[in-house]
Amino acid sequence: MKTHSVAWWNLENLFDVDDSPARSDKLKRTLRSELKGWSEGILNRKITNLASIIRQFNGGRGPDLMGVCEVENRPVLQRLVDALAPLNRNYLVAHHDTADERGIDVAFIYDGDKFLAEETFSHTIQKRTATRELFQVNFRSAAGRLLVVVGNHWPSRLGGSRTSEAYRIIAGETLGYFNDRIEEIQGDDTPILVMGDFNDEPGDRSLTDHALSSRNRTQVLYANTPRLLNLMWPLMGRGLGTQYYGSDANMLDQFLVSGGMLKSKSKIKAVEDSATIMQFPEMTDKGRYPSPIRFGRPTSALNQNGFSDHFPITMNLTES
Q1: Which of 120, 123, 196, 296 could crosslink 134 through cysteines, CB 3.0-4.6 Å?
Q2: 293: burial class by Cβ within 10 Å (0-12, 13-18, 19+)?
Q3: Residue 212 region by backbone torsions, left for phi larger than 0, else alpha for psi between -120 and 50, else beta
Q4: d(Cα 94, Cα 147) in Å, to the nearest integer?
């Protein structure tokens, strides 16, 4: 029996330097004021801080597979991978340039000795203004088993959660649709792992009514329409969150798994009680509320001792 360590982290505006040649002219115009002063030195510090946390995952061995969001492009993500070199892992990148207005992407870092990224798909969310696509990667384990992973970064709550809810409902419908299609094409025993920053909580209707996620294991196993088990509910019951808004802890970052990861005959299974919010002391505010310490940027609350405005989450898979 093999165990695979999986992680997810919203890296909070991991942009390339302010004069990056890899940035399109359109994005240069959009981001000009936002990225003023985002220099090579500041980017290096941000990457160093993020890498110092990731290297502590999985008992200091680093994750086997990690999803990330709010990363601008492949070159800057590769710099983060390079900063993980002390782990002596064969980390590779699966990435797709998004049509998002701010150019921030969803991507995966994975150990090439454990997984092969066999196929990638980008699923567009039909929103009036461009937003991050769902990013699907069909991985093949070293033993040759299929694992479908879908990364998400749903539309933000900017303007208020109710005002913006419709956009996340669209994203939930998109996820539900492709979850259906994956099982239709690959079979209903397919292990599907969904992760992301959903900008909604497990009980919000974008997830329950539209993505068809549930806290009920039996409902997922025996549903007529493919459903997903949300592994974050036990943590919700303890008042925990991955992101704080004032004094409120919000469980925005989540792992969801298909019935194909829950069956007794499944070759790749979710360890259902393994979902954890990683709150290392150096990245956690020492004040009244244990919120993540933001890195910010030169134009907005820069703190070079910070990390991200989200805590990372981790979980385990087993492969027989």
Answers
A1: 123
A2: middle
A3: left
A4: 14
**Per-residue pLDDT for 199 more than 90?**
yes
Tokens coding 113: 């000795």
Q: Is residue 63 scored above 90 in pLDDT?
A: yes
Q: pLDDT-based confidence at 130, cuts 50/70/90? A: low
Averaged confidence pLDDT in the chain: 95
CB 221 within 8 A of CB 265: no
Give how many domains the chain has, as a whole number.
1
For 88-155, the three-class secondary structure string (H helix, E strand, C coil) is CCCEEEEECCCCCCCCCEEEEEEECCCEEEEEEEEECCCCCCCCCCEEEEEEEECCCCEEEEEEEECC
Q: Which of 272, 274, 276, 293 is nearest to 284 (CA)?
A: 293
> By residue range, what is the domain housing residue 302?
2-319
Residue pair 275/256 in contact (Cβ under 8 Å)? The answer is: no
Residue 7: which CATH number?
A: 3.60.10.10
- The label of the residue with tokens 């921030």 reads 104
